[in-house]
Each structure stands twice: as C-alpha cells, then as structure tokens.
Amino acid sequence: MSKEHGNLSINSQNIFPIIKKWMYSDHDIFYRELVSNACDAITKLKKLSMIGEYEAPDDIEYKVEIKLSAKDKTIKIIDNGIGMTKEEVDEYINQIAFSGAEAFLEKYKDKANDDQIIGHFGLGFYSAFMVADQVTIDTLSFKDGAESVHWSCDGGTEYDISEGTKTTPGTEITLYLNEDSYEFANEYKAKEVLDKYCSFMPVPIFVTNEDAGEQTEEIPEEEVTEKDTVLDTFIKDAVTEEVEKEDGTKETVEKVPAKKMAKIVKRPVAINDIHPLWTKHPNECSDEDYKEFYRKVFHDYKEPLFWIHLNMDYPFNLKGILYFPKINTEYESIEGTIKLYNNQVFVADNIKEVIPEFLLLLKGVIDCPDLPLNVSRSALQNDGFVKKISDYITKKVADKLSGMCKTDKENYEKYWDDINPFIKFGCLKDEKFAEKMNDYIIFKNLDGKYLTLKECLEENKEKHENTVFYVTDEVEQSQYINMFKNEGIDAVILTHNIDQPFITNMESKNENLKFKRIDADLSDSFKEETSKDELKDMTEKLSKTFKDALGKENLTVNVEKLNDSSISSMITLSEESRRMQDMMKMYGMAGMDPNMFGAEGQTLVLNANNDLVKYVAEHADGENTKIICEQLYDLAMLSHAPLSPEQMTGFIARSNKIMELLAK
Ligand code: ADP
Ligand code: MG
C-alpha cells in the first residue's frame, strides 16, 4: 500500500475545536462512543460468522480491551471485530463522519452551548478529539486478502494513511491525550467512566493498566486451566493448632491441610455484564435477581417494594425494569432515576422527553434500540414515536398497579402509603393514567380500612350523597373525628401535601363528587332539629357578647343544639374558603400566620346544650365572661388550625389564670 496524505475535505477551517466545544458537554463520553463502536464491530462479525460469511478461529474469544498508560498518556481501545479496509476507513472515517460533522455544525452553530445533544450524530468516532491531540487507527478487515491499515490524524484537517502491522482482524484505536484529559488514562477514573456508560454493553470489556506491570494471583493448582499462565507452583503449609488433651498434655492438630498452589498471571475480569437482567425473559428472573440488580445499579440497599418488567417487541422494541422504591419522606424529596439505554449502551439519566415525568420518581432502566437518538432533546419532545413509547410505559405501570389492586389487594394496601404519592402525582400529570387509576385509588378510613372511591361513597350514601369527608391531621381534628365516629359517619385520612391538588383533580373527573374536610360544616347528624326562631334570641345575645369579648367585629356566630352536650364551641370553615386560603398560602405565602386571612368564611359554632355556653348567654356582663369567651374561641380554633405564637401565648396565660380563679 502506498503512503497517502489526504485532506479531510471540509470547507471550514479546523472543525475540531468546534466539535470539542459543541458536541458533548461531558468529555468522558468519548469512552462510550469508542467502546460502543468496538462492540458494534464485534457484533457485526459475530453475525457474519453466524450466517457463514466468515469463518472465525475456533478459539476466538470476542472482547474489547482497554489499555491505559498514565505514564505515556495514552488509551488504547482494541477489538477483534469486523475491522476496516482502506476503502472503508476512507468512507466511514474520512468522509461519512465528516458529512455528519457538517450537518451537525449546520444545525447547531446558532444554538446555545447547553443544548445538549444525546447520542451519536454519526460523530461518535470524532469524539476522540475532545480528549486527544492525536488519534491513530490500526485495523485489519476480516475480508479475505485485506491489507492492514494505519490511519493517523492530529486533530487538524489532514490525515495520513499507510500500511499497518495488524495481523488479526479487528481495530485498535490509540488516543494520545491532550493536556486537559490526562485523567482519563488513570485506572480509577477510567473504570468510573466505563462503569457509567459501558456496564451492560453486549461484549466483555477488559481494562488493564499498562503501567502496573504484571499482576498475579494465587489459586489452588487444581483450578488452573489451559488459559492461565502459570508462573510458579508451591505448597502452602497446613494450618495447625495446639490443643490441650484431657490428660493435660498438648497435641498439634491440622486445621487446614497443606495444599498445592499455583501463582498465575491475574485472570482478567470483565467490567461489564453482557446479559443485563432486562434483556432476559421475566420468566427467567427470580425475585432475588431483581433485587440484586437493583442494588447493583442504584446502590440502594433498601429493598424495592416491587417492580415491573417491560418486554415488548412490537410495534417497537422496548425492554426495561421499573422499580418502586421504598420511601418514607414527603413526596417532594422522592428522587428516582430512570436510566435510558440504547442497545445496552447507556445514553443518559432521566430524559424527560422520553420518560413520562411522574415515572422519574421511580428507579429503573429502559432500553429502547429504536429511539432516534441522533436528534436534539427538543426534537425528541415533538416526536410522535417517542410519545408512543412514553404512553406504552405509562399504560404498563397503570396495568401493573390496577392488576395488583384486583388480585393482590393485601400487598397493594401494604404498599399504599409508599406508592400513593407517586400514583397521585401521576394522576395529576397524566390524564390517561388518571383515567386508568381512578377506580384503584384507595383511601384509608377512620377504622384503618382501605376503600375505593366507590366504597367510600357507599358508606355515607344515606345522609351525604356524593360526599367524602376527610381528615388532614388526626391529632388536631380529633374532636371532629370523635363526633363523626359517634354518629357513625365515615371519613378518610388524607395527610399528604399532594392530597389537596389530587382531590380537586378527582372532583373534576368524577361528576358531583365532593370532598369535604371534616370541619367544613356541621352536618344535621350532629344536631337536634330546631325551629327557625328557637335559637334566634340566644344567637343574637351570644354573637354580641363574643364579638365584644374578642374584639372581632366580623365574626360569624352560629348557635346549634349539638347532640353531644360536652362540646362547647367549634370552628367550621367552608371547604371552598379553606381551599382558597390553602392555595394562597402555598403560592409564596407559606410560613405566614395561618390566621392572617382573618375570620374569612369561618364560623364559630356554639352549642346551646352546653352549660358554659348557657352561662355566657345569661351573663353577658359577668365578671369572667370575657375570659370564658376568649377561652372558648381558642379551644375551638385549636381543633381547626395551629394557633399563632401570640394566640398560643395568650391561651396559656389565660389557662393559668383560670386555674388561679378555680383555686381561690
Ligand atoms: P456510528 O457509530 O454512529 O456509525 P461513528 O463515528 O462512531 O459513527 O463511526 C463511524 C463508522 O466507522 C462506523 O459506522 C463504522 O463503520 C466505523 N468504525 C468505527 N469504529 C470502528 C471499529 N472499532 N471497528 C470497525 N469499524 C469501525
Ligand atoms: Mg459509533
């Protein structure tokens, strides 16, 4: 072969600085590109050999080797795959890649630097120039009579191509690292990067540190195989121990017998798992397999609750495993990770253009070989195919959850506390998911039983059609809870932040459905029927007395004859007003005094059957009336919302004073 000097025909000056700047924000990605090319080359050769187009040597062991030398500042990536002829180097490396580069530049020259591009863009090989000043390729095609080729390029627009020295098919890429990238030849750094991108690539990958010299290990001689290089054999002495016999004399006993050992050149260990769990059929995987895979990939030692194995060939190819992690914190801090793969090559974490947003709360892996990765994220977003993938995943998750609710209710209930924020978030984010899950949302009632929406409505059907009462704080609202229990009315417990937006959403999806917090109004069940005028007088009197005592001109006072005479006072706040106030608090007014919105919509309910209330009604000017009014109001407030610091201080001081009065 004659030596050739060529020009990478591209009309711009030197494109490499531009590639470096624009292509990937993470320089370490060159490892992914070059190692995946090496794997591709092997996969291709294996296919050719399978269909009889290539006769592989019997003892061939397909593998990718990565040889590092921090001393020489080089990285070699070696495969025994398909290799390239001179013509192929010309076509795939000199030309094709550059047309890719041109298209790339055309498209991205005006874009901001942070518009991250996922995937290849036909530029994979050239990512080497992000970290190397000079790159060489030594390659020999598998084809009969092919000549070995040596290609070299120093990152300018010129390359040299000449006869190479390779004698077996495959390709060896050598990177002469640039000043900023020496770290990639460091064994630990390299392994860290490879672990990220190459953990599940389909061909065994071996890493050796060329500077470290020969590594050895000692194994029992009988375990030596033909492949091992034996450096030495020796006898490992028996392990003995002195023990005292019954008669007091000592005896030496053999604990471990002597053993023939061999010192061998350390056996290489592949850094990757070429058959990751998601590529297997669900029938072949045990629970322990799933748990182990979870631990390994997510470094989470808490066991996942359960998982979904996605396995689809038609109309597109998608495999993966989604885990529901155990959580005990509020939903804001749930942090999932969905790792996206393309034919076992890691692409990126949490690509929200492909994975529905709410699923990012889960942990999982998704491998979709059909994904068009050579486009930008913004293009992915508008891709109909991507939407289909995302819909499919959503549907599978809903199927799994509804199936579990139907056939494994016990576990479903057990997991509910952990998974409900996720499901509710999903319902808020995804119409279809909400529709599918509507009948499988369950609510814990006052007896700790789980009910579906239908069952909840059934419970209160007679007196409160279409209404579900709920509790947001079991301690604060205990007085109301007791009243409900006494009257045999049910309520459900909804203590999570997401519950408020969620029930609003559910109401909009289920006609006539109304959620009411347990203190929203006093239902007729709790009070005696009274004629219109019966309490009119008392109401007027009490209203004036309380307004004066509390200095609250706008206070609404309502007098009722409650069945339970031990109850003196309560606060009710209509559901609408409360939700409005909650919403205002949420939008930037968090942390403010919950009472700052005044008594808006609040009603002080006084029980005409209660002795203290009767006393106040009859003693508007009594010596202690003011103090009693204030105390009755605070007691009612306590079961409704937390008191402000000033209110609490006042309440405690007054309570002390009342006890003093008692003692006198
Ligand atoms: P892509 O992998 O997307 O095709 P690359 O720039 O990574 O783009 O590689 C360009 C082409 O160069 C590949 O399609 C392949 O034909 C060839 N190539 C790259 N690396 C190797 C290799 N290790 N062995 C054989 N061919 C290779
Ligand atoms: Mg490639």
Secondary-structure blueprint of this entry?
Elements: E1 4-7, H1 16-22, H2 29-50, E2 64-69, E3 74-79, H3 86-108, E4 132-140, E5 149-153, E6 158-163, E7 170-177, H4 187-198, E8 205-209, E9 216-220, E10 230-236, E11 239-244, E12 250-256, E13 259-265, H5 287-298, E14 306-312, E15 318-324, E16 337-342, E17 345-349, E18 363-367, H6 377-381, H7 384-407, H8 409-429, H9 431-437, E19 442-444, E20 450-452, H10 453-459, E21 467-471, H11 478-486, E22 492-493, H12 499-509, E23 514-517, H13 536-550, E24 556-560, E25 569-573, H14 575-586, E26 602-607, H15 611-618, H16 625-638, H17 645-663
Parallel strand pairs: 2-8, 16-18, 21-22, 21-23, 24-26
Antiparallel strand pairs: 1-6, 2-3, 3-7, 4-5, 4-7, 5-6, 9-13, 10-13, 11-12, 14-15, 15-18, 16-17, 19-20, 25-26
Helix pairs in contact: 2-4, 7-8, 7-9, 8-9, 8-12, 13-16, 16-17
